[in-house]
Amino acid sequence: MTDTTGGRDEWIYVVTDIEVDGPWPGPNSMRSFASVAVTAEGEERGTFEAVLEQLPGAAPNPDTFAWFQTQPGAWAAATTDPEPVDRVMARFVEWVRRLPAPRMFAASPIAFDGTWMDFYLRRFTRYGLVQGPYERDVLFDGPGLCLRSYAAAVTGRPVAEASPRHLPAAWLGDIPHTHRAIDDARGYAHLLGVLFGRARALRPPAE
């Protein structure tokens, strides 16, 4: 097959950060999330931000809630003026569907943020983070990208040392990691562009 892209990455990456009041989707709730859609070169193509109502019958985990009390700004950002969850997720789906294809979800780490987003998508919409091989109507085209794992691969650092507090601040656009979802999503979106750039620099020239 002939490559007509000149080696360019044509994907849109939906870099997402979530804030939750406990470790378990269902018994606990996702209180807010934000997504920044970017190209592999780090060009922003749109943002989404929302605060959600608690799930019916759910309650904050005591330890998580106690930690949030040490971060009053983050708690306020995650809980002020919440919207019904079904409306938020429907609006998120429409926002993602308006982005150019192909689209891939990205988070740090995807095992945590992705699990929550998949739970909310499947509970309140007809979509999931990764859908079956015979589904034609999908929200995301790729399998998802774990920024933590990718940062470890590109830098050679252990995965445990590929978090914001271990990486140069400039790699995250000098955006403080505040636990306000939109701030952290913007930082991770900038990180994605930096990592792709470093990976391209290491790639051997095409023959």
Tell me what the structure shows.
With 207 residues, this protein is α/β, with parallel strands linked by helices. It contains 6 helices and 5 strands; from the N terminus they run βββαααβαβαα. It has helices at residues 62-68, 72-79, 85-98, 110-124, 147-155, 181-202; strands at residues 12-20, 30-38, 44-51, 103-107, 145-146. The protein has a 5-stranded mixed beta sheet, sandwiched between helices. Helix 5 (147-155) runs parallel beside helix 6 (181-202). The longest helix has 22 residues, at 181-202. The radius of gyration is 17 Å and the shape is globular. The protein starts with 11 loop residues before the first strand and ends in a 5-residue tail after the last helix. The model is unreliable at 1-5 (pLDDT under 50). Keywords: Exonuclease, Hydrolase, Nuclease. InterPro entries: RNaseH-like_sf (IPR012337), RNaseH_sf (IPR036397). It comes from Dactylosporangium vinaceum. This is Exonuclease. GO terms for molecular function: exonuclease activity.
What distinguishing features does this structure have?
alpha/beta, 36% helix, 207 residues, single chain, 16% strand, 6 helices, disordered N terminus, 5-stranded mixed sheet
